[in-house]
Prior knowledge:
By secondary structure, the chain is mainly alpha-helical. The protein is about 70% helix and about 0% strand. It has helices at about 5, 10-20, 25-35, 40-55, 60-70, 75-85, 90-100, 105-115, 125-135, 140-155. Helix 5 (about 60-70) packs parallel to helix 7, helix 6 runs antiparallel to helix 7 and helix 8 (about 105-115) packs across helix 10.
Amino acid sequence: MEPRSRLAGLSLKGRALRLLSQREHSRLELSRKLAAHAESPQQLETLLDVLEQEKWLSAERFAQSVAHRRGERFGVRRIQQELQSHRLEAGATAEVLDALRQSERDRAFVIWSRRFGILATEPLERARQQRFLLQRGFSGDTISWVLRHARDMAQIEP
Length: 158
């Protein structure tokens, strides 16, 4: 049986719960996915309100999910942009972003170590390492700390 035929008989709420059982979704994301199956925009908004009241849909859980999935590879800025693209309120993301900020240096150092492992001696290579971390959403202060810390670690090792 193909997936489309299994979904044909599902109600709008059934579709929503099926999507939410696979992973957390933002209200905006779920709205986009369900819009084609709703009889009216009002029906969809009512369903989303009910899902939030029944705690099936949660902006805080979605923010935590994004932070967990993306935190190992990206910095706070990049994750914050992704959360903003889902139009989440600042209150729903503040706690998650604060936790990410506290671990930002360690995460950046792990990412840098995995990718490069040795401190660049040439200015062009150093710039490449900085761009690598910058493109992943790490702040300039964090990048400077990582490269300074890497230099200290290189002096300790024989």
